Amino acid sequence: MTHEVLLTLQGLQFDQREEDADKIETVTVGDYYKKNGKHYVIYNEITEGFEQPTKNRLKFGDNMLELSRHGLINMHMVFQENKKNLTNYNTPFGQILIGIDTRKIRITEREDNIVVDVDYSLDVNYEFLSDCHIRIDILSKDSSKQKGGFSLS
Question: Which domains are seen in the chain, by residue range?
Answer without folding.
Answer: 4-146 (2.40.128.20)
